[in-house]
Amino acid sequence: MVGQLNKIHSTPEKSIPALLDTVQPTLLSCQETSATLAALIPPNQFWRWKDMWSNSLRTAVFSAALVQYLGNGNLASLSQVSETLGIKQEWKDRFALPVEDYLHGLISLVNELSRLAVNAVTLGNFEEPIRISIFVKDLFAGFSMLNLKNDTLRRRFDSLKYDIKKIEEVVYDVSLRKLTPQKEELNTK
């Protein structure tokens, strides 16, 4: 699924919906995996076993969030991602999507969008880095309100600053060369 999504960096903007259509079945197949895991884990044993699938779940969150962003230009909420992955509320004592894993997936999304900002320009899409910049800055503002402990999530959050800097450099270069439409034109899109 992630391998297929990596094609966004070499796919023209008009072909992105077709690419998302090829990823959607794989993303929806996660629902079956979620149901299988929920059936295997005994009641009240979620925290005992969660580390076994935590990295895979974060990757699935990243994929769902990226598909949502590329399709609609907005952020997939925790409940939307849970629904996409087929994680049901009644399983919360056996299998759930922890907030921490959701946040890790969003950080991966920002990491990928910083790459996309650069590659979109090489494909002639000069507006995309500006949209990405606005989206990522809003997301960063949300992360900044959290009181993160000194753990892996905090360290990954710190990496967002470098991604923002990279995106801002792309936006600066595109703006300096006057390759972007005026702000009024961007707001109407």
UniProtKB/TrEMBL annotation:
Q: Which GO terms describe its cellular component?
A: cytoplasm; nucleus
Q: Which domain of life is it from?
A: Eukaryota
Q: Does the keyword Cytoplasm apply?
A: yes
Sorted alphabetically, the keyword list is: Cytoplasm, DNA-binding, Nucleus, RNA-binding
- One short Pfam family name for this protein? Translin
One example GO MF annotation: RNA binding
Q: One GO biological process from the UniProt record?
A: RNA metabolic process
Compartment list? Cytoplasm; Nucleus
The record ties this protein, via InterPro entries, to:
Translin (IPR033956), Translin_C (IPR016069), Translin_fam (IPR002848), Translin_N (IPR016068), Translin_sf (IPR036081)
Q: Which family does it belong to?
A: Belongs to the translin family.
Question: Which PANTHER family would you find in this protein's record?
Answer: TRANSLIN AND TRANSLIN ASSOCIATED PROTEIN X
The protein, known as: Translin
Organism, by scientific name, is Serpula lacrymans var. lacrymans (strain S7.3)
Give the classification, highest ranks.
Answer: Eukaryota, Fungi, Dikarya, Basidiomycota, Agaricomycotina
